[in-house]
Amino acid sequence: MKRVPILLAFALAAFSLAGGAAAADAKKPALALKTLDGKSFDLASERGKWVIVNFWATWCSPCLKELPDISAFVAAHKDNVVAIGLDFEEAEKDDITKFLKSHPIGYPIALLVIVISGILPYVWFKRRGWL
Which pLDDT score is estimated for 30? Predict the structure, then answer.
């Protein structure tokens, strides 16, 4: 359990060092979607904070193990870090809502429907909005 917060801290440090002039010219990513609770999440409104975009699925054992760690990390750094969970599977909203009642998560969740095989990725956005 201690590995995930350490890895998150390491990733934050690595991305902050990777900044530089090249990032100033990078295209700013866009991500705006409706969360399961009916609210909107817009990456642009989180500018100035670190954003964890967590792709996960109910069938992914490592994902389920890290959800509480990410929630705790975000809660401990709420002034500087936010997260959005993107449920990455073919599932009905009601099924995911039911699942989340038994697996509480401290950040918003949205359903994401895309077809990719392999390991579920993380995407980190720096405080200025660039990768």
Answer: 78
Low-confidence ranges of the chain (pLDDT < 70): 1-29, 113-131
State the helix-helix crossing angle for 3-17 and 61-76, rounded to 10 degrees.
70
What CATH number does domain 3-125 carry, 3.40.50.150, 3.40.30.10, 3.30.465.10, 1.10.10.10? 3.40.30.10
- Determine the Cα–Cα distance for residues 116 and 92; give it in Å rounded to an integer: 19
What does the pLDDT read at residue 85? 93
Q: Could you state, in order of their start, the residue ranges of all structural domains in the chain?
A: 3-125
Q: Are strands 40-42 and 50-56 parallel, antiparallel or unpaired?
A: unpaired
SS3 content of the chain, % helix, strand, coil (to 5): 40, 20, 40
Distance CA 96, CA 87 (A): 8
State the pLDDT at residue 127: 55
